């Protein structure tokens, strides 16, 4: 009994010690577990906030990119200014709602008056814009300032993007707002500065949108929290550009640490007497939780830097890799090549086969691009059908050209989409780093300019950036400025007249007015050069009106039967052109029957409502319509019949080969017979030899124009040649053609 009593305190002591150690160990484990739980939950919450904020920024940027896909488009400019409501519904309003989910779309004219409105897929009266105007007006005014004064907005960072956006509150709901001007995508459509229409897109931030963003980062329970509702820790503010909070985006907080404690709780209770085992168990579970957290972070990081449709690097990762590549190349002799690529007429595939087919085309294109480059290079999707490639260790531009040729060949192979074979092409712009000081932004700009040149020069090709592209832009701006000065009272622009003769070679039937510009520095500029600049910079209306007024003023003071003036397709697309021409005739006093307008076959192929109405109005007034350069384009008997042309002009390229090329002779004969069948006149231009004239007379042609008969003449020289003005020289010196 005494031994038991002696042992008991020792046993109790040992027991207490063991229990104390166990309790201490358990307390340490519990304390460490609680600390780890709090830290894991805190780190996870910060990660969730960052991911959600990145998701919101990506959505805002996506709205901007989605809007840009239709804002920079020739057809958008043409149809918006023409007031083509059906087209705007199918392409820039209801289409934006059905494909991209934009809730509201407005189109404003150059005076910021609404011409089109859409809400939630329903087209409304344009006046419904007034309900939202107080909220949208500040951003509209900011875009207008960007258009008027781009240099003041950002002098150091290059051209300013003519767009603005913000988070706004409409009808008590927060929304993403993006406003862009409608701009041409090519030099085929020109609009005067200040005449830009605006496209407004509104994407409401809803529970569904937040759930979609949350789903990208494996978060659940995303919802919109109004300011009147209590906000928990798992939320981020949605604030506008002034910092005013409009609402909060909340979600169910992911708590990996707390989840771990809930799972390990029963094991902790059951193993209270086995502190060491519990501790080992907790350490093992914590390691697993840490691994799961790292995996989740890795997945989120991947999603933040890769395109979800193709798995390629996105714009953020692409720009980071480009800067790293340039930094590495600055220490070595090798260079970096940047390739911009986008598919030609990608929207046509979307419209004809559907957007799933468009997505599949993007995926297949991405796969082909990856196969065409080395593993060390980078291919990225920048958005839509636009891709970019970084080629490192390139010795010269030939290496980039070889890769581009391979890319074009791969993309020429048919794509299998929705049980259809689809053939597409691509345009490529190439820029090469120039030295150790190469700048990523500058290289991006050069590749973008080269891509624009590739598209402008025919698509389905590649274009290497050349230094003279910048020089060309500068020269165009200089010619534009000087042309404006010449039209606003300056000197140098004048008209020459090339007479058109009857078959006898002496009777003058009329004359064609030809514009000439004797530049003070560059001498005589080719008309095609400065006319193209006038069309590109929105000056063709002013230039064309000057030519018409001068030609009519000249003709009314002579006895010439008629005078012919060339008209640009862009002039005929102006709904007010017929009225403007009527005003010129009234001002000068020239009878409409003494004026002929020469148009190209492209005008007929355009075949839009505005052009048809203009041609019909002109013919009703008595003005004759002449189809110039007949046979060189896509001629259609249906177009000739529908537009009721008054005369065909046989192009000089066919006349020049008469007597030497049987096919050209057959074409000319067919054109003469066609004119006879349509009961319209026919003129042969470019007649330079007696043999050509004789063949044309034999075919039935009765009007001739060319150097054999007369070069373009000064007005006084033409009148002297026609015997309408006294003078000694009956064969005056000609003006250079």
From TrEMBL:
Sorted UniProt keywords: Membrane, Transmembrane, Transmembrane helix
Domain EAL stretches: 476-726
Family annotation (InterPro entries): Biofilm_reg_signaling (IPR052155), CHASE4 (IPR007892), EAL_dom (IPR001633), EAL_sf (IPR035919), GGDEF_dom (IPR000160), Nucleotide_cyclase (IPR029787), Rev_trsase/Diguanyl_cyclase (IPR043128)
Transmembrane segments: 12-35
Listed PROSITE patterns: EAL, GGDEF
Keyword RNA-binding: no
Residue intervals of the GGDEF domain: 334-467
Keyword set includes Phosphoprotein: no
Entries under NCBIfam families matching the protein: GGDEF (TIGR00254)
Name of the protein described by the UniProt record: Periplasmic sensor diguanylate cyclase/phosphodiesterase
């Amino acid at each position: 009994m005494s031994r038991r009593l002696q042992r008991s305190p020792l046993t109790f002591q040992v027991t207490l010690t063991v229990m104390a150690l166990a309790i201490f160990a358990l307390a340490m484990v519990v304390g460490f577990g609680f600390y780890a739980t709090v830290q894991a939950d805190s780190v996870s919450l910060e990660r969730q906030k960052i991911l959600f904020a990145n998701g919101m920024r990506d959505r805002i940027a996506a709205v901007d990119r989605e809007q840009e896909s239709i804002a920079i488009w020739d057809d958008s400019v043409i149809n918006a200014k023409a007031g083509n409501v059906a087209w705007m519904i199918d392409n820039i309003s209801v289409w934006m709602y059905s494909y991209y989910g934009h809730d509201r779309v407005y189109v404003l004219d150059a005076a910021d008056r609404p011409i089109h409105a859409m809400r939630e897929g329903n087209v409304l009266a344009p006046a419904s814009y007034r309900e939202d105007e107080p909220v949208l007006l500040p951003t509209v005014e900011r875009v207008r300032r960007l258009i008027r004064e781009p240099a003041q907005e950002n002098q150091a960072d290059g051209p300013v993007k003519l767009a603005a956006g913000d988070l706004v509150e409409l009808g008590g709901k927060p929304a993403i707002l993006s406003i862009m001007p409608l701009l041409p995508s090519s030099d085929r459509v020109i609009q005067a500065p200040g005449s830009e229409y605006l496209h407004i897109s509104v994407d409401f931030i809803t529970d569904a949108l937040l759930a979609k963003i949350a789903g990208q980062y494996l978060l659940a329970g995303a919802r919109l929290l109004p300011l009147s509702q209590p906000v928990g820790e798992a939320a981020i503010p949605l604030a506008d550009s002034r910092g005013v909070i409009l609402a909060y985006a909340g979600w169910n907080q992911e708590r990996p640490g707390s989840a771990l404690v809930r799972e390990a709780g029963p094991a902790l209770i059951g193993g209270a007497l086995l502190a060491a085992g519990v501790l080992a168990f907790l350490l093992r579970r914590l390691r697993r939780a840490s691994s799961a957290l790292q995996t989740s972070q890795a997945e989120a990081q991947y999603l933040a830097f890769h395109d979800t449709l193709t798995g390629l690097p996105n714009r953020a990762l692409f720009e980071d890799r480009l800067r790293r590549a340039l930094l590495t190349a600055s220490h070595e002799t090798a260079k970096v090549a940047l390739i911009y690529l986008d598919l030609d007429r990608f929207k046509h595939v979307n419209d004809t086969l559907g957007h799933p087919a468009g997505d599949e085309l993007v995926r297949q294109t991405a796969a082909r691009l990856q196969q065409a480059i080395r593993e060390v290079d980078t291919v990225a999707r920048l958005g839509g059908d636009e891709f970019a490639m970084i080629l490192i260790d390139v010795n010269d531009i030939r290496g980039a050209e070889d890769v581009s040729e391979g890319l074009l060949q791969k993309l020429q192979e048919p794509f299998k989409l929705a049980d259809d074979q689809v053939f597409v092409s691509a345009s490529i712009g190439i820029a090469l780093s120039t030295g150790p000081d190469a700048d990523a932004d500058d290289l991006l700009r050069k590749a973008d300019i080269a891509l624009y040149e590739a598209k402008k020069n025919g698509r389905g090709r590649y274009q290497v950036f050349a230094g003279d592209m910048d020089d060309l832009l500068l020269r165009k701006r200089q010619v534009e400025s000087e042309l404006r000065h010449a039209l606003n009272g300056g000197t140098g622009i004048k008209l020459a007249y090339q007479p058109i003769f009857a078959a006898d070679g002496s009777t003058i039937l009329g004359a064609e007015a030809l514009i000439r510009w004797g530049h003070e520095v560059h001498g005589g500029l080719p008309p095609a050069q400065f006319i193209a600049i006038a069309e590109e910079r929105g000056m063709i209306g002013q230039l064309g009106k000057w030519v018409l007024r001068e030609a009519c003023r000249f003709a009314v003071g002579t006895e010439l039967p008629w005078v012919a003036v060339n008209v640009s397709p862009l002039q005929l697309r102006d709904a007010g052109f017929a009225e403007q021409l009527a005003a010129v005739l009234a001002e000068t006093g020239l009878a409409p029957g003494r004026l002929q307008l020469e148009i190209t076959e492209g005008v007929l192929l355009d075949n839009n409502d505005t052009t048809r109405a203009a041609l019909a109005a002109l013919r009703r007034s008595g003005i004759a319509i002449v189809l110039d350069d007949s046979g060189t384009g896509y001629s259609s008997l249906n177009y000739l019949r529908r537009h009721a042309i008054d005369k065909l002009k046989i192009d000089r390229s066919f006349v020049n080969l008469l007597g030497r090329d049987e096919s050209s002779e057959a074409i000319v004969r067919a054109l003469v017979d066609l004119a006879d069948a349509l009961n319209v006149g026919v003129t042969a231009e470019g007649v330079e030899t007696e043999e050509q004239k004789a063949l044309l007379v034999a075919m039935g042609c009765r009007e001739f124009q060319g150097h054999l008969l007369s070069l373009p003449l000064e007005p006084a020289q033409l009148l002297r040649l026609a015997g309408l003005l006294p003078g000694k020289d009956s064969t005056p010196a000609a003006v250079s053609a």
